[in-house]
């Protein structure tokens, strides 16, 4: 590792509870300091970061989980801060929660159990009252019913396959499905060419898409209008995917039979026939550990080598790190950036051993390994020279 990297212990700050096994990834050369105003990296779960000012040393934010709507991605990109998430690391936990709550809601389990607890004061009468009262909670079986899965990513694909195993018919919609998911999806999952086709045919609908400008309020008066009467809707993605005023009306009219959501708020708790879950989708020991370890490893590798895996705002880029001096630069995706960086390097009489350049939209990332033994005295001056190039957002020499 280079002299520059060893100069300063790297500070990691956490904004949420991050599993210990993840924090243990940071050993020599790292310190966890949750009071730091200027950490090198932040680990976060659902904490809302939109109002946070970032310190000058901040290089990376890792979301130990999937959704990144709590992170100001554009601001991070403009400041050269790489944002990671942990694709798939909590998908099984959410899949199990979706299946559990779909089954429990169908069998009126939540209401039935709550009612039974009210009988505590009835003493010996309890068994008789149970037998007399159970007819209020007659449910329906999911076998033979149709589940609509909106979004076939890490979670949606697992839910779709498992629902088939439970005897359901499954129809799914995802215009951007990845090749990996397509390979792992049962061919018995029916493909909806339009989301309306899914809405019109499903008895249960579960949504597994990120919250974006395109998906916001995708469940609204118009889309409820297409759905079957008494459809059950499961939302373990984000509350804002649903227009709440329209959901309230749909629940009142019985168009939506039940709304199961991981995102309760004041409005949701006032609606009838909702099953509010306290954002428990990913809250299992296994998933918290998976996410924390994956997030921590990605941050550690980035800080130590510049390699980027699973970024949501910068291109992924890797070069085998052989311990030689490495220039890592974020820059505008415009012509001749690589040429200018390599000129800066060769102006110090240094030779290039290897390089990678990847772009994503308006920005790009370049890593260049230097072949020579570099005198550490010149590194700050080389780093500054690269930072002076118009279009460079940030640059490090590792
Ligand atoms: N409740 C929880 O605890 C919990 C846990 C994990 C994830 N989540 C939420 O679930 C979301 C999905 O998670 P994931 O791990 O499956 O993510 P993912 O990125 O693997 O999958 C998302 C899928 O949605 C698809 N998609 C995007 N826009 C779409 C649209 N308009 N219509 C249909 N499909 C569309 C994408 O192509 C992708 O396949 C996350 O973004 C997060 O908001 C919640
Ligand atoms: O997007 C996610 O991964 C989930 O919403 C999980 O959120 P949490 O890490 O706060 O439980």
UniProtKB/TrEMBL annotation:
Q: Which Pfam families match?
A: 2-Hacid_dh, 2-Hacid_dh_C
Pathway terms, separated by semicolons: Amino-acid biosynthesis; L-serine biosynthesis; L-serine from 3-phospho-D-glycerate: step 1/3
Q: Which InterPro entries does the protein's record reference?
A: ACT-like_dom_sf (IPR045865), ACT_dom (IPR002912), D-isomer_2_OHA_DH_cat_dom (IPR006139), D-isomer_DH_CS (IPR029753), D-isomer_DH_CS1 (IPR029752), D-isomer_DH_NAD-bd (IPR006140), NAD(P)-bd_dom_sf (IPR036291)
Q: What UniProt keywords are attached to this protein's entry?
A: NAD, Oxidoreductase
Q: Does the keyword Iron-sulfur apply?
A: no
User: Could you tell me which Gene3D superfamilies the record lists for this protein?
Assistant: 3.30.70.260, NAD(P)-binding Rossmann-like Domain
**CDD domains associated with the record:** ACT_3PGDH, PGDH_like_3
EC numbers listed for it are 1.1.1.399, 1.1.1.95
Catalysed reaction, written as an equation: (2R)-3-phosphoglycerate + NAD(+) = 3-phosphooxypyruvate + NADH + H(+); (R)-2-hydroxyglutarate + NAD(+) = 2-oxoglutarate + NADH + H(+)
Keyword Protein biosynthesis in record:
no
Q: Where is the ACT domain?
A: 326-398
The domain of life is Bacteria
Spell out the family assignment given in the record's similarity comment.
Belongs to the D-isomer specific 2-hydroxyacid dehydrogenase family.
Q: Its function?
A: Catalyzes the reversible oxidation of 3-phospho-D-glycerate to 3-phosphonooxypyruvate, the first step of the phosphorylated L-serine biosynthesis pathway. Also catalyzes the reversible oxidation of 2-hydroxyglutarate to 2-oxoglutarate.
Q: What is this protein called?
A: D-3-phosphoglycerate dehydrogenase
């Amino acid at each position: 590792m280079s002299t520059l990297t060893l100069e300063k212990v790297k500070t990691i700050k956490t904004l949420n509870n991050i599993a210990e096994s993840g924090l243990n990834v940071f050993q020599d050369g790292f310190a966890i300091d949750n009071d730091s105003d200027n950490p090198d990296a932040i680990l976060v779960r659902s904490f809302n970061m939109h109002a946070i000012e970032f310190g000058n040393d901040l290089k990376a934010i890792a979301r130990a989980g999937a959704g990144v709507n709590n992170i100001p991605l554009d601001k991070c990109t403009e400041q050269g801060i790489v944002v990671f998430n942990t694709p798939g690391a909590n998908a099984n936990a959410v899949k199990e929660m979706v299946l559990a709550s779909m089954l429990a809601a169908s069998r009126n389990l939540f209401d039935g159990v709550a009612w039974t607890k009210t009988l505590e004061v009835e003493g010996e009468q309890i068994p008789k009252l149970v037998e007399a009262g159970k007819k209020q909670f007659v449910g329906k079986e999911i076998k033979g019913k149709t589940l609509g899965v909106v979004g076939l990513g890490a979670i949606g694909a697992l839910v779709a396959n498992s629902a088939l195993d439970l005897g359901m018919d499954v129809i799914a919609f995802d215009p951007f499905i990845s090749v990996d998911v397509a390979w792992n999806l049962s061919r018995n999952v029916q493909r909806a060419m339009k989301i309306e086709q899914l809405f019109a045919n499903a008895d249960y609908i579960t949504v597994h898409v990120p919250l974006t400008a395109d998906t916001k309020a995708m469940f609204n008066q118009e889309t409820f209008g297409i759905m079957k009467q008494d459809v059950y809707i499961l939302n373990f993605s984000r509350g804002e995917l649903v227009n709440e005023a329209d959901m309230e009306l749909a629940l009142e009219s019985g168009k939506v039979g039940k709304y199961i959501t991981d995102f309760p708020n004041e409005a949701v708790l006032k609606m009838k026939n909702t099953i509010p879950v306290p954002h428990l989708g990913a809250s299992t020991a296994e998933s918290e550990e998976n996410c924390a370890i994956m997030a921590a490893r990605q941050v550690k590798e980035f800080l130590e080598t510049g390699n980027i895996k699973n970024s949501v705002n910068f291109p992924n880029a890797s070069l085998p790190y052989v311990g030689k001096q490495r220039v890592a630069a974020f820059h505008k995706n415009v012509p001749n950036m690589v040429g200018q960086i390599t000129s800066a390097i060769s102006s110090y009489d240094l030779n290039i051993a290897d390089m990678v350049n990847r772009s994503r939209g308006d920005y790009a990332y370049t890593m260049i390994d230097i072949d020579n033994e570099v005198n550490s005295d010149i590194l700050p001056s080389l780093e500054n020279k690269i930072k002076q190039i118009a279009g460079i957002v940030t640059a490090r020499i590792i």
